[in-house]
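job 3f2a | input accepted
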Amino acid sequence: MAFVLVGALLLVLRLGGWVQFHQDDFWAWAIVLTPFALAVVWWKFADDSGLTQKKAMDALDAKKAARRQQLMEGLGQSKPDSKKKR
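job 3f2a | predicted structure (86 res):
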């Protein structure tokens, strides 16, 4: 996401005419578009390595644990894993 934000910022600066990177048009656009290419490479790596799926599974596990805790509190069992002392 950071690559996309930096790329968008550079694109706005370039199109707005506020910053001139080089006189050569090819290298100027290469500098502006490089963060977008890096974002694509990062997303490809994250998907292929399983990083994206692991984060999604961790988020689902956290939601599942929170839902279970809420249901147990609704049943009057605030700590389902520990036994109550009487």
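job 3f2a | The mean pLDDT is 85.
job 3f2a | closed
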